[in-house]
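Components:
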Amino acid sequence: MVVALLEVKDLTVRFGDDEAVRGVSFSLDSGVRTGLIGESGCGKSLTALAILGLAPTTATVTGSVRFEGEELIGRPERELCRLRGNRLTVVFQEPMSALNPLMKVGRQIAEVLEVHDKAGRGEARRRAIDLIEMVRLPDPSRTAHKYPHQLSGGQRQRIVLAMALAGDPALLIADEPTTALDVTVQADILLLLDDLVRDLDTSLLLISHDLSLVASLCEELLVMYGGTIVERGRVSEVFARPLHPYTAGLHSASSLEHSDGTDDLRTIEGSVPPIGQFPGGCVFRNRCEYADEVCLGVPPLRVPPGEPHEVACHHPVSHD
Amino acid sequence: MGRPMTALFRGVGITRRFRLPRRSLLEPVESLTALDNVSIEIPTGAKFGVVGESGSGKSTLARILLALDQPTEGEVYFDGRIISGASPGELGDLRRDVQVVLQDPRSSLNPRMRVFEIIAEPLRSLGVAGDERGRVLELLDAVGLSTASMDRYPHQFSGGQRQRIAIARALAPHPRAIIADEPVSALDVSVRAQILNLLQDLVRDFGLTLVMVSHDLSVIRYLCDYTAVMYNGEIVESGPSERVHENPTQDYTRRLLAAIPTMDGSLLERVRAVEGDDREGEHDET
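Structure:
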C-alpha cells in the first residue's frame, strides 16, 4: 500500500476545556490539490497550524499527523524547523506580515536556502533571483534589491510564494492566499499557483472560505464545520451533489452567477457559534433545517468510511 | 419600470485631484487624479453598481456623492439641486436623504454605544421627529435583529449582525438613497448571501435608490440593474447590468469578468484565454 503524503488522525486542538478542532482525520496523496472550506471560526486555519506545529502555545494538540511517514505531533521544535519551509511549507493571507520589512526581498528568499543548508551565500543569492523570475516578477535582479514596502500586495504575495517554494516542498499549505487581493490580481496569483504546483510536483492544501476558488484550483475537497470534517470527496462530485446540508448551503450561497437577483439567494440561517458553544450531538443541528431528535443526541460518523464521497450527517441531502 | 426615470444623482465632468505630500524642495508638489472627468446619472429607484479595483476611484466617487468630499472640477446634483461646493446650510435635506453603509462594521460602529443609541443617533442629530423607541424597534425588526439586541454593544455581535446594525442606522432617518461601499466584502459567503438578500428586500420595501460600490463584479451583477466599470479614475463602461456583463465592449471589463472565480471551475481557462501568453506579473504593479 502506498503511504499517504500526509495522514491526519484524530487531530484535536483544545483551549482549556473547549475543543476548537475535534478529532479531525483525513489524508492527502502526493501531487493532489485539496481544498479545505468552511466559514470563519470553523477550525480550518487552526487545523493547518496544528499540522505545521504552529498552534498557539495556549493550545493542547493531540492525535497524529504523519508527514511522509513520520509523526509530527510531539516532534522536537528543532526537527520541525528543518521540515518547515523545506518539505512542508505555508503561505498565509497577509504577505506584509509574512515578510521582514527591514530586509530586501532577495535576501529573505536566500535566507530560506541558507537555513536549510541548500546553498552558500553567493549561490543562495543567485538562486533567489531565479526564484523571483519563477514567480514572474519583472526585472528579477532589481526586484531582489527592493524592500517589501516598495512592492504591491500581489507582488509581495509572489515573493512569499518564492520563499515557500525555495526549498523542495512536497506539500504547500496556502491559507486564504488571495483574500487580501483585488480580483484580477487574485486571478494572476491563482494562475501562477496552478503552474507552479504542477511544474514542481507539489501537493496543495488550499484553505478558503470561497468555494469558487477551490472549484478553480482543486481536485479534492474537505468541508469543515464546528472543528470537524463534515464532508469529503472530489470537488466536481461534491459540488454537483452536496450531501451535507452545510455544504449544500455554502454552495447555493456562493452561486451568485446562477441567480438574477429576483429571488432570495438560498443560504444558511444563523451564524457560526463561538468555540465551545457548538451544540452537542451534530455540531450543525442548530442551523440545520433537517435536524431532529437523532441529531440532538448522536454525533454523526463520516460514512461510508474510505469511500470516495463521505458525509457526516444523519439526514444527507437527497439528489433523486 | 415603464415611467420615465429622473436622475436622483447627476455628476457632470467630475474631476478630483489630491495633492501628494511634498517629496522635494526643488520640484513642484505632485498631484494624483483620483477621478478624471467622470459624468454619471443614477436614476431614482435604481440599484446602481460601481465596480473597479483598488485605486480606481470608486470610493472617491462615493464620498463625492455623499458630499463628504468636493470635486476639484465639475458639478454634482442631487434631485436636481447642486451639492458640489454647497455650504452645510445649502445641502438641505441631503444629510438625511442619503445614508451610507461601509465595509467594516467594526470600525463604523462606535464600540462604546449600545445598539439603541447607535440607531437612534441619526434621528436625534438630524432632528427627525417621532417616537424614537418605536422607530428603533421597527428598524431592528426590518433588519432581522431581536428586540433584546437594543441593549447590547457592537462587540457582542458577529460580523454579519454588525452589518445589519449599520444598515438599520442608515435606514433610521427615512433616507431616499443608500450608498453602500463594499458592504459584503468582509463577510463569509453564507453571511454575504444573508446581507444581499436583506439589502434586496429593504430597497424594494422602502423604495430606495441603492448605489453599491464593490470590487466584486459577481455581487454587482447579482444585485444591481445598472453597472458602471471604473478604471484609473474613469468610467470605462456603463449600462444595464445584463448588457455590461453579457456583452462587454471594453477590454478592461472583459478582463474583470474573466477574473471572477465561478463555481464551474472555469476561472483559469478563461483568464488564460483573455490574457493570452502575456503573463509577466506587471498587472499587479501599484
